[in-house]
Structure formats: structure tokens, C-alpha cells
Amino acid sequence: MDKVRVALGLITAPVVTSALLVLVGLSVGVVGPTVSAQLRPPVVALVGGRVYASPAATPIDNAAVVIEGGRIVSIGPRAQVRVPPTARIIDCPNKVLVAGFQNSHVHFSEPHWAGAATQPAAVLTAHLQRMLTRYGFTTVVDTGSFLPDTTALRRRIESGEIEGPRILTAGSPLYPPNGIPYYLRDGSIPPDLLRQLPQPATAADAVREVARNLDGGADIIKLLTGSWVERGRVLPMPQTVAIAAVQEAHRRGALVFAHTSSPAGLEVTLAAGVDVVAHALDDTRGLTPGLLRRMKEARIAMIPTLTLFASAQNAAEIFKEVGEYAAQGGDILFGTDVGYHQMYDTRLEFASLGKAG
Ligand SMILES: [Zn+2]
Description:
- With 357 residues, this protein is α/β, with parallel strands linked by helices.
- The protein folds into two domains: 8-98, Urease, subunit C, domain 1, CATH 2.30.40; 101-356, TIM Barrel.
- It is 30% helix and 22% strand.
- The strands form four sheets. Strands 1, 2, 3, 4, 5, 6 and 7 form a seven-stranded mixed beta sheet that branches. Strands 11-14-15-16 form a four-stranded parallel beta sheet. A three-stranded parallel beta sheet has the order 8-9-10.
- Strand 15, helix 8 (289-297) and strand 16 (301-302) form a beta-alpha-beta unit.
- Helix 5 (203-215) packs parallel to helix 6 (239-251) and helix 6 (239-251) packs across helix 7.
- Zinc ion binds at residues 105, 107, 143-144, 337, 340.
């Protein structure tokens, strides 16, 4: 059985003009005759929608998109695109088609991913739809989860058994010594699992933990360069540990994401040469425009995750920080931290980014 899977975000047009964007992930299954399908891949045509071919391009109304063997082969106004007679037509009136979105900060750490290797495919597909694909995400970066479950999920998606996004994962984050955040010590994680979270104390330990993640199938490394060990207190990671972890990750071609939390955490992040800050700093005490400028000069991308901070006491300060970083020309990546929290809906993140400027 040949199967074409097309991942496109569909937005229902009547709500586009309002703040209420409804995004629906579309998966198209096509069953073709086995012999001819091998010679000619199955064809799907999405007809009649409005297409945003790129963020900068003028949208195409009443468009046609032709997909052969899982690849887009033509796109344009319906009158100008030849739709093969064998194509399976999917009518898309009052729909908007865009390229797949990327969520650069998610977690596959909720209990329903446990045992992902053996769970029924339909159950996992339904979870992925609820959490990610219905909001248009076709690529996600998991910044911390149980690696065997996440790699099993990824393997089943890549084989076509499960419908879901492309997954990049950090595996298990690295914490400072005695640096497990208070919000993970609230009983939500079993104590034996909690003890296994890596807290490298030396450069050699850090190198070993990075290798363990990458050997286990991780794509990136995540460091807690600043960890909220108590309410109101951030513990920075020892600089030598962070530097060793980043050097080893870079040597093996992996990007490093960091949860920095505070200006002290950001100093470690800068010293170590981290690539991406996984949250805006939420401890804004002592955060200066000069520090943000150094972050920009170090070409560190920021994932604000404003969904997480929208109701914080100092939300206005955090929004201001994100706006300043964008105004300085710092790279901003979209990410919501979904999976750590259950606010799957992306509207708050979009609205907050708009509010931050
Ligand atoms: Zn997170």
C-alpha cells in the first residue's frame, strides 16, 4: 500500500480576519494500485483555497496545489495549474493553506507518551493531532523528554505508521549539581526518575552526559544554565561544565539550547557559546539593554515562550525584554513550551508576541 502524507496547515478563512485563527492539520492518505503506483506516485490536488506560498508573497486565491509522491510539484491559480485526471481532488473552499509551522520548544514528557514504542498508532496520532498537528506544526523541537519514548515516537512517524510532525529532540536536559528545578520536585516526576536527571559536576561528567544523549538519538543538547531551584532563586550552572558540554555538542554537530532564567544564567550561556535561549529570561532583575546586546552580538536566537509567562507578575517586563531583543535585530523563534503545560492552543502565543512587538 502506497501512502502519501501531506502536512499542510489549513486555516478556515472566515476566521482569518479575526483574532480567532483555527488551524487544522491535514493528513491525506491515498491508496493506489500497487503496480502503477510504483511507476507513477499517487497524486493529490488541493483545489480552491487561498495559498500563502511564502510569508512575503502575495496570496493566491482559488489556487491549486498538486502533490505527487508526497512532494508539491505545482502551485498557482487554479486556471493555470494542470491537475492530472488521476489526481484525488480535495476541495478547499474557504480554507487557507500555508507551509507547515515549526514549534521550537515542546516536550514529549506527558504521561501519554510513555511506552510510545508499543502504544496503538491511532492513540498516538490522536495525541499528536490534539497537541501539535491541528495547529499546523509539521516540525517540532522537543527540549526535554525521556529519550527512548521520544525516539520510538519519531521512528514510528518516520515509517509512516503514525501521522505526526518531524521531531528533533534534546533527550534529557543537563542540570547544575543539586540543580533540579523546584517545579520538577513537586511530585509530578517519580523520585527514581528524578534521581536519574543528569547533574554533571565536572567537565568530564558534562562530556559524558552529552555523549549519552547524542548516542541515544538526540539531535540537540539542552542545558539549564540557570535553574529555578527555589521560588525566587536561580542557581547558575558552573561555567566549566557548561563550556565542556557546548564544546562536545558542537564537536558532534549539535546545537545547544539553554534555559537561562536570569542574568547570571545568561552570563554562563554567553561564556559557553550556547546557540539558542529556550525561554525569555523570566528573572528580569538586573537585566540591562547591554546584556541583551551582548546576546544579540553572540547571535543567540531567543524562543520567548510567552504562553508560559503571560500571567507572570512581571509579564510586562518579560514582554518588554522580548520586544527589545526583536528591535535590536535578535532572532526570535516561535515556541510555546507545550507539553510542559497543557495550553495546546497557540492563540495566546501569537497574541503575546504581537503585544511584545
Ligand atoms: Zn520547556
